[in-house]
Amino acid sequence: MSQNPPRLIDTEFLRVAYLEDGPSDGWPVVLVHGFPYDVHAFEADAHRLAAIGARVIRPYVRGYGPTRFLSDRTIRSGQQAARGLDVVQLITALQLTRPILGGFDWGGNACCVVAALWPEQVGGLVSYASYDIIDVEQQRSAFAPSLERVCWYQHLFQSERGRACLQESRVEISRLLWREWSPGWTFDMATFDRTARAFDNPDFVEVVIHAYRCMHGHAAGDPMFEPLENRLAGRPPITVPSVTIDGAADPLKPGGTLDHARLFTGPHEHRTLPVGHNVPQEAPGAFTEAVLTVRTWQT
To answer: Hey, which end of the chain has fewer CB within 10 Å, N or C?
Structure first.
């Protein structure tokens, strides 16, 4: 468990709080969490990687933990272009040279965005749920009823009643999602509570609500990100070395995502693990092994 308090660094829009493990001159890795998780999801992998020479950066994404917007005037956007840009601007601010990116859920989405739009900034990618760039147009269509049922929280967040529910019950909603998405994982309350503290951020609700409304086409994105969103709508391939991962017991990804392989045009390997959605905590070390595989393709 990391003992040092988060470090802070400014990007264009954020004062980003992040944890850092490993030697300052180590080979760089950035591990990005999703919703509703935080930097502690990658605790085991960060320490494993640091022990073998990596400099591991774990940022609190916008709306989580001590990360804050620099201006009250900035739209609290949760759209994928904004979150991807946050990662690439963090890479620049920390002067990291082509780090390997790893992420799941929102973090996997953001890392895929960076790998697709700024491949020159990236040394490789480990992505849960493969090509996790959101196809907003596809999101306008209905999915199978069984999957729509699993996505109840996304439907809830489309209404003002849902916003109020998240505002008042963010911890309860998140605990429900942990249990539903990782049906074979028994976590203790101390583990959950440590992460839940990251939801006590003044922008958490606005960022989360905007993320899901924008994803479903029910809220406009920030106009400054429209050129990036237009590029993402074209489904740009990911050319950097990549390992992709599925959790066979993840109800959000029934059948897995191996069919995304055609969107990876560089070295690529896909792995399916007998776990649910929260791979870093359900299968500690899986991201480490994937990062090491990507690193062998760099040399």
So the answer is: C
> 3-class DSSP state for residue 232?
helix
User: By CB neighbour count within 10 A (0-12 exposed, 13-18 middle, 19+ buried), where does 242 fall?
Assistant: buried
Q: Which CATH number fits domain 7-298: 1.10.1200.30, 3.40.800.20, 3.40.50.1820, 1.10.132.80?
A: 3.40.50.1820
Give the single-character DSSP code of 234: T
Over residues 15-61, the pLDDT tens digits come to 999 999 999 999 999 999 999 999 999 999 999 999 999 999 999 99
Q: Are 3 and 30 in contact (CB under 8 A)?
A: no
What are the CA-CA distances from residue 223 to residues 79, 82, 230 (Å)? 11, 11, 11
Q: Give pTM, 2 decimals.
A: 0.97
